[in-house]
Queue: 3 jobs
Job 1
Amino acid sequence: MAVSQALVVRKRLVEVDEPWKLDIYENTGGYAAAREVVTTSSPEDTLEEVKASGLRGRGGAGFPTGMKWSFVPKDIFPKYLVINHDEGEPGTFKDREMFELDPHQLLEGMIIAAFAVGASKAFIYCRGEFALGSRRMDQAIRSAYEKGYLGSGIFGSSFDFDVVLHRGAGAYICGEESALLDSLEGHRGQPRLKPPFPAVKGLYGQPTVVNNTETLSTLPHIFNHGIDWFRKWGSEKSPGVKVFSVSGHVNNPGNYEVPLGTKLSDVLELAGGMLDGNAPKAVIPGGISAPLLTITDIAMDFETLQAAGTMLGSGGIVFMDHTTCMVRNALIAAEFYEHESCGKCTPCREGTWWQVKVLERIEHGEGRQEDLDLLLDMCERMDGRCFCPLGDTAAWAVRSNLQLFREDFQAHIDEGRCTYETDHRTLVGARAIGPGDAGVTPQPSEGIGSDSEASS
Amino acid sequence: MSDNDSVTLTINGREVAAEPGRLLIDVAEELGVFVPRFCYHPGMKPVAVCRMCLVQIEGQRKLQPACSTPVADGMVVNTQEAGAVDAQEGMLEFLLINHPLDCPICDRGGECPLQDQTYKHGPGSSRYVEPKRTYEKALEISDLVVLDRERCVLCWRCVRFSDEIAGDAFIQLVDRGPGTQILTFNDEPFDSYFSGNTIQICPVGALTSKPYRFVARPWDLKSAPSVCSYCSVGCPITNESRDEKLVRCQALPNENVNDFWICDKGRFGYHYVDSDERLTAPLERGANDEFQDVSWDHALERVAAKLRDGARVGVIAGGHLTTEDAWAIGKLAKNVIGTRDVDSRVADAGAPYADVMISGLSPAAGSSATINDLATARTIVWMGPDPKEALPVLYLKLRGAVLDHNAKLIVVSPRRLSLDGFATHVVRSEAGGEARAVDELMSSPAADDIGDPMVICWGPSSPGRDDAGVVAALGRLGAARDAKVLMCPPHSGSQGLLDMGVHPSLDAGHETAAEPGRDTRAILQAAADGRLDVLLLFGADVIADFPDADLAGRALGGGAHVVTVELFPTETATRSDVLLPSAAFAEREGTFTNLERRIQKLEPLLEAPGVAREPWRICVALARLLGDDWGWHSFVDVWNDIRSNVRTHTEVDIDALSARGPTPAPQYESGYEKDPSHSGGVVAGPGGQYPKGYRSGTPFQTGQNWPLSWELRGFEARQRPGIVAGTPNGARPSPSGSTTSTGSAAPDGESADGFVLYAGRMIYDEGTMISKSTALRHIARRPFVELNEEDAKELELSEGDEAVVRANGTEARLEVRLADIARGAVFIPYDQKGFRANTLTSAPRVTLARDL
């Protein structure tokens, strides 16, 4: 059984050379949907179409996009559209790829979204580390302005639309939409108290829609091909296709676009199977925030994974084989959350600090029997009590490692050492050896041009 | 069950009605259900970061923070559900893993919300075995505030106070995650006039007071409610003493006056009370011109003898006297001695307070508006001194009115004021042209924002300026609509002195005197000319404060017998013939009347040094010697007399001034049942059994640690609101009744030579009380002169140069500061280091030249 991708968002960047160039984008059908929507449709109809498509946010929470837009009050201006391109979830590199290779696809989706919600200004919040992508997008925005696809009266209509590209400064928390807005406004990036939600009071206190890169990159295709076409994939509640970033102990790590509901085992097959033909020991199904799976016979859609106690999240899948020390895996996750906690609320700030301390001891052979229950207790006391989901997911990550692989932890305590080879292969990032060593960086798929190309 | 004005909810099984939109944490507390908290403070917006106040609400998947959840109809809340209790315990465990348990040497120990709430809600021991986070301890982030980041629980209270309330975000969060710290930027000092509030609201010992560091443990303190003795805002405070020494002043909340805040001058300027330089016994100038200690009987008899002999007596009272002193001084002067030459305006000599009544702005020579009216005003006009320097907490109120309540603020001033940063309109009046600028307001761009309700704020801004013209213009502005006035005299006692008739043309109760007497300037002039037999000075340091130091000096040397009632041997006092020692504010039972005419009570905490007495008792004794026995022995006696003689004060109920709050809720439900020692009806925290004077039994009076630290008890402490004095009904004197001297100036024409001089107070100066306060006396700046850049260019002066400023034959060398000030005007602060501005302010104009 040969599994194949369903290429929609990634189609152009797989099949076309230099897809980031405007003429190439247009020659392959680009900007047709946005032109059609802006010149012939109404904001109401556009919104209805997106609602009917059942499109759900691709950033992690899976909130229905049309519903999010409908929360925006009609009579308050200005409204803003903000693109969350702060892709920082470990194991996830899908937005980065489509942003670098196909920036116009995102711009086109943004035009449709802005038209639907009545925003005449958009901000792209680009993760600070994405140098190439931001240069490509900068170039794309400029060429779109030159063509009159951005600016005043786009496509000859009366709709004005401006886009500002902003690079973040290196904080995972700024992927949380309200922290992103604070950071965009020039403040310390920390989540805001909700309500009010951004749809009502967002950027600069105005109604704001915050959408993920992949979500809006999907929009032109929905409008080009229709709802029925989009809904032929996936389920009633999770329609369409989804890009998964696959990494870990697989033969061909990379991004794969498949219909929602595709079996995890099929995704693994797409990625060339496990290294050395090993069996997967544990799978992170949606970025390290998502609790682990130990099976691969499961449909990858929002509701199935939720029912299994985990989540689709950002679509970052990490496969781990039997060489993986789950204590170390938990420690790596905990260190990430400790480093990225914004420090605003007590349970996240102190809980992540404490988790790391205890896990470090266990990994280094100084664990005590009572540490296991202590860790679980700590996770209970963080989960659901933090200011924003960062702290909650920090608890989930550690808890799921400990609950599913308690024997690994027990062995560390019993033997007073790490029971795995010291030079074992590592996953989402080896433990840093020294300052600035971020470990193994997942390899993006082929086709990314060099920086010098981007500026040409 | 509920209508639009009220929702009904259930908290721990009890139904309660509440106003919609109120926060669950407050509603629960009023019901007697105390939800533990660190970040929440009733004076600031909720941030929900400490997660300590999580409660269970039926129908909600997660626990919700009570501090940021508004009450809703039908809400069912349980603060003692197992998950909520676990959350409270868990949060304390998290907070404590990195908190050093140095309580035995921490200033906050014994009155610490973290300590108290750990007792009530926390785990008995810690499961944390690793090393704690460490930082450099005891960083001095200013001359007044010390920061210990290890103790910090990152509740953001100080950061939010600085940003939201004070508007000077000197203190901030830096770094992130577990490394998040509170710090000032780039080692710059925490240079705020309000920094001490962050110490008081800090729920741990992270921010501590440098002057109070290691001085006392809270359970050793005796405390008493009082009122700040500096400016006329009259913030209620708590005085606290150890071993009969005043060691700390803290803000006492009053939602009508200061909310929860006081300025650093009020908080740290208390050491003068215990100064070794205080006068402790009556002194008399002896044979060889040296002072010698004498008995009260001897001193008073000598003064009485002079008063009996002398037909010509002048009485001048300073601004820091209580309402009772004021009544006694007025009565002694006008009824017993029989002189009309009485005035209480020294630094503000000539200020046309009576004109506020005459102009129709107010039925009294005082405010018709209250401070709270600022919050509901549509338009506020500010025409006075810089409030951040002179009336700091009023500045906070003005800022809040604009930023939180959308009032339109119009500032008229010849120089940049602190208000300009958030004012809606700034009218930069010409030098000496304030009255004209006020008259032109209605034809200026500001006119669009003038509407009702309107509050006109006026205070004398500088000696020698045409304040009578300003008040008349403000009267015209206010007459066109239903405007109220907030009159801002300078000192804590100023308004009480006006109310009690210590004024040449006003008698007590704002009655126009049949025959007006001399004002301060005229009294001093008479003394200087040898036309006065006795000069009585009650807390009036005329040489330091009167705007013409030269005249004041000549008055003391003019042959009159000078009697001074003072705290300190000031320059004026040492040139007197008899010095009578006065009790200071912390030693007295009395009242101050603030700028909105609110009467608030001071309770005595300390014994006065030596045989120092309250000034009103000195008046009683003198009156008796002069044949008029008033029969007053106590504070209550004075007030009985005031109530039966002063028409505006007949309704003042002095018992209500010290009224306690309502009985605290009988049972604090959250967590207290764990504590077997407090299982009875009355609940006390660990502080409940400490011996502590005023505190025991009356926590709401002091707002102190019972059962939890004071800010947690804010709603009860608010129950000492004070009383706003009445106004004379319908009695408005005719303009002819005014003999107010306006100082010197006719409107300044452009042809005159030199610069129009503005002089004003900075918050810290070398005033008598501040210069005896160890914490503040070094903060005064070097003296300077502010002038316009264009003017400076013409004089070939630049920033930092030394300029020679001359007036009336005196000169001073002052550092030049280029400022946003009208051309032709200069500004000089009072009493900065080593320089008394009143050597220059005798003239309306000064000349400037480069120092060659």
Job 2
Amino acid sequence: MNIYVVMKRTFDTEEKVEINDGVIDEEGAEFVINPYDEYAIEEAIVLKETHGGEVTVVTVGDEEAEKELRTALAMGADKAVLLDTEDLDGEMDHYTISEMLGAYFQDKAYDIILGGNVAVDDGAGQTAPRLAEKLGINQLTTITKLDIEGTTATIERDIEGDQEIVEAELPLLVTCQQGLNEPRYPSLPGIMKAKKKPLDTLDLDDLDLDEDDLEAKTKTVDRFLPPEKEAGKKLEGEPAEQVEELVNLLRNEAKVI
Amino acid sequence: MDFQYTEEQRMIRDMVRDFAEAEIAPKAEEVDQSGRFPEETFAQMGPLGILGLPISEEYGGAGADTISYALAVEEIGKACGGTGLSYAASVSLGAGPLDSFGTKAQKEEYLVPIVKGEALGSFGLTEPNAGSDAGGTKTTATLQGDRYVINGEKCWITNATYAKAVIITAVSGKKANGDNKISAFIVPTDAEGFKITRPYDKMGVRASDTTELVLTDVEVPEENILGDPDKGFGQFLHTLDGGRISIGALALGIAEGAYQKALAYAHERKQFGAPIGKFQAIQFKLADMAMEIDLARTMVHKAAWLKDQKKRFKKEAAFAKLYASEMSTRVCNQALQIHGGSGYMREYGIERMLRDTKLMEIGEGTSEIQRMVISREIGCP
């Protein structure tokens, strides 16, 4: 089985994120594999363990992303590919990224492509569905269970607090949701082997793309952190008095009732 | 000179950090209070390759370098000092000498299970009347036919309850100059006459298994001698030098954990209308802590680097162990002070770190012994 994962390097949203003049301070940020993409990598490795084949992890970014690709190789992926954005000067958005991925996949034979449901940095969830559209293949998002028999995939999806069971034919693109699996730690021998596994870098020429074809469709106007939470208010007195005060505040201060 | 971690070193640190934060830290308090050895943690570490981190690939290890190993010990120590001590002892003192001096058959029999996480590594040197003064060793090994008969007592031996075999030092004869000849023997823990008990109630590192060994006419085949029978003494010294790097790394981890907690607390705790971290009295403590931790890390990594380069590292290992352990006691003490009354309470975990780290100034050669080693190395008369 030819298994591909599209992966994004993101800053760790569990660590402190600083924004200066609308730009995220990369110096102080910690970078990780997008957690939803970790589910995709894990599932890809499980598929390989069950059905045989090869797992290739693809990302779009600069050479810094090699770190996250190596981590994916250490987890058990076989090959990694970096689609290098070094030649791109302008802003990039989901259109840019999915166009580059589309160009890469054009001449590839794939049975399944896995990605994360969303990236934790911008939370858009656009790149993978755009890629499936571009390739003209089936796509299912936010999956929580995946079984493949022959060329048919049986999939459970999260839908607004409920589950939906869907069958789809390969080739197929899926995006992975929390609950699909528990990503493994890369093992020590896996880490040591990772550096011997192939990691290819392709630039725009290799992909037969021109910078003008990749111009972003959107423009980021500003970025800012959510306002700091103000301290709460503690009500005092007997329970009955507190209830009265609460109702009063909800009505007159918060104006919600 | 390059202060950057290699890609492997960084990946190993990140993996062990993730593992330690998710699997070890949540039970640090419980294993400290109960004194329970977290067997299940070690069962998880085996398949991940953490227990064979610096061991050769031929025997199932990952073949990683000493710097990676120091990073791993630091991360585990940051989560739980007791777990870190058992880990460092298993790798440095148990698996290390087998890897360096064992025969192929000994490695297959005793090293592979340690790497896989089926058994822990354990090293029995200290006795009621001998420790760093290994010359005072009273345990004896007498060759009778093709078997050695071992008699003696060992105290404060880490991991023996969970070991398949303990490497035991014993007097095996006399050297030409009349001094005792000390050799190392691989003694299976199920050998007849080998009694292992846990009679101790420790101040800290309570999760680690600390045992007393009594050997009464324990017989081992002649081939269980580890390494060169005549150079046994030099071998333990080498083993202890390596072990010191790991104790330095462990102290570093505990200090880093305490410092991070103190820094976070300095943001949260408000007095006189401001977070206490706004006050210079607290800021300067934190500044000193951060500086000392980084200095210790640099020394630990330098000693590890020298070992990896196959250069002499005895003095630097003593520097690393001595400075990191004393630094960690200072840092944990100041971290507790910053926490004030909260720090004195168990739930904040700081008092545990202070209790845990005190051992770093004692185990694998006290601070005084490190100063002796350094004095000798710098050529004092």
Job 3
Amino acid sequence: MKKTLICLALVVALLASQCCMVAFAEGEKPETLILVTDNGCLAQYEMVADKFYEKYGIDVEIIDVAYDNMHDKITTMVLGGTQIDLFSVDTIWPAEFLSAKIAQPVTQYFSQEELDALFPGYVEEFTINGELAGVPTLTNSKWLFYNKAYLEQAGYDHAPTTWDELAEMSKAVVDKGICKYGIAWSGLQAEGVVCEFGVLLDSFGGAWQDADGKWTFNSEEGKQALDFMVEGAKQGWADPASSTYSDRVVLDPFMAGDIAFVLCWSYAYGFCNDPDNSTIAGNVDIALVPGANGTKTGSVTGGGGLGVSYTTKYPEHAVEFLKLAVSYDIQKDALESYSNMPVLKSVLADEELLKANPEFAVMADEYNYSTKRPTVTAYSEWSAQFQSYLNQALAGTMSVDEALKAAEEWSAKF
Amino acid sequence: MRRMKKMRGAYIGEASVRRTAMLMIAPAMVIILGMNVYPLLYNVGLSFFWYNLLDTAKNGFAGVRQFVEVFTNKGFGNSLLITGYFAVVSLVVQTVLGTLIALLLNMEFKGRGFVRAIVLLPWAVPSMVNAAIWGWILNANYGLLNRVLLQWGVIKEIVVWMATAFSALNMIILADTWRMLPLTVLLLLAALQTLDASTIEAGIVDGANAFQRFWHIKLPLMKPLLLVLLIMRTTQTIKVFDIIFMMTGGGPGNGTMAISFYTYYAIFKNLNYGTGATLSVAISVIILLIAVLYLKVLHTDDPS
């Protein structure tokens, strides 16, 4: 009898504790998580949201904004106290987001093994003073896109490997009346012009900063890089309206068949080969960015990731979303379905995938050479003025030397 | 005694009505205080504090030092000049053109109603759509303006209208004028139609020509409405934001960085709320001073 009573008491206690655990879990488990992202990442995160619901039974409401408005949307929402859980983080925002307490550090949630599975350069971009401001979920870089039909008409059977060769091919397509100009640059006073200069600077053998953080872009290589961008329009082989193109608008003359080359992010491959958008669909190919001064190639890193908001009540669940976003299946699906380059190294090691999509191999190769933009806490403030100097050089209202000198003086304040 | 009671009764009734009225407007007052007055006062308070989210070490009481820092900043002077140029050129062009068009539309001619409706159409276009339309019109390679000018032989090669700061600023004024001119026309036309016909006829009898009738009779009579129009449009032009956001983003070379856009950058891009608050206060004071100036210059108790 005593034994029966003890057993009964144990069973009751066990059931009660189970009930308490269920109640605790249900009390803590959110019905919905809110994610703010831009339309470039939307499709990939919708895919993650579906898997997340399957796995945890939690809905993810996605607020989709234009990229240009995303920074302001996130900062005003979080700093204004609105409860959101996750948001996209561009590679240039981690320092700012950690400093302003917009993104909360997620360092303790990720093991070294999990981080080692990702491309190290992109993890490094999200790491500020040893703290992770989120995780990269897709990688990007700028590549050279070219119209292979135009090059064939001009008598070339390969993409240019040096900038001199690109200038020569550009002159040829213009002289033969194949198209209006060889190349157009993303020269508008916007973030795109910093990326464009970053590509040229890196591929000409220059660098933004040295190992001690001293600004070094106003070097011989830096001057050659900016001069190359400026001189093309003067010599008639680069689009003179380049100073008005954002890094999306620069695709318009390319897709209209008016230029033979353009530098752009990975999405351009699918976008420009889509007959709904482009008059040159099927003729667009991708190559490594040309080099100069003995440099094989060079580019700038892009892409982005996800951060966990300071205003979330459910950081653990938000982190689970982050982990799912960098899982193998999601990363592979995003690459195959949307040309979103993975951050998970193992995806690009899949030989079958590379065999079926040879362009992925070219894309992956550029990652070995791409460098990041400068790490500056007040990046937006630094970049806004920096863009202005580059834009003025491209518009011809400042000389290359003046623009780089002014940009150097400005940068010294950061 | 009975009368006093009656009066007393009436008095109590009025107080009760007043109380009811106060109760009725209380929710609206709370909303106005909460949504307008409190943020305004908070902003004024914030303007005396360093409050930068990206440089928290300096945050704290600043007194007037933040105003000094803002006013001595080269960027502020630049944005003030740009805003001044935008406001003055826009107002002059729009007021002169608006007056001429209003005078034309005030004349009797066949199809006047139709022409009046057509003239008002651009005003119905949302500001963002207007900016997008003009962005395409001014596009160097595919824009209508270059196409027309090339066809007419006015230019020999494409002009990149948005490449230089001065050109871009003038193009923004053009786009803004296209959209806002109808408002000026509408208000001035309304003013013209309220003028006393006998006064104008008296001018004709006295031998005044059309210009004299306009300058000495119509214009003075239109002064009160002109005052309203100028104050309204000055405030709007000083606060110009959306068309710049859409067309140039403050470029090229910060050449279209009007003061509102400069403030937006301080707050939302640089996360420097203290500087942003100081700039907002400065904009409000500038607008207030201009309004007072207009009132002093243009206000007359007796327009006749």
